Amino acid sequence: MAWNLKSDRPIYIQIVEILSMRIISGTYPPGGKVPPVRELAMEAGVNPNTMQKALTDLERSGLIVTQRTSGRTVTEDSEAIRTKRESIAKEETMMYFAKMEQLGYTKERAQEFAKQIAEQAASRYTLPGEEGDQQ
Fold it and tell me: Is residue 106 domain-shared with residue 118, that is, in the same domain?
């Protein structure tokens, strides 16, 4: 998986965001083992200390836990994962509305625009197993 780290924001924050997305999307499932610091650092192309800082943040947030004998695992607390997913969704939505306001759209027009785009996306894509699966 590509990390696509940019220099416009602290690297460890971007790593926290990427790993959080991997957790809430199920790439790293609840109770699953998190790769070791050095492995993740090599994959991301960063210093192991930077990766360690990101993992410590994820521990503080409750998304990962350290098992003394078996390393780090993703929390099995589905509520913590759901809460993080909703937090990210709210943040992204707020950023959308802020950007639309900068573009001169009213909140109502931004909502209409989002609804139109959602309808277009729904007509293009179906869930796996449905007719017309376009994966």
Answer: yes
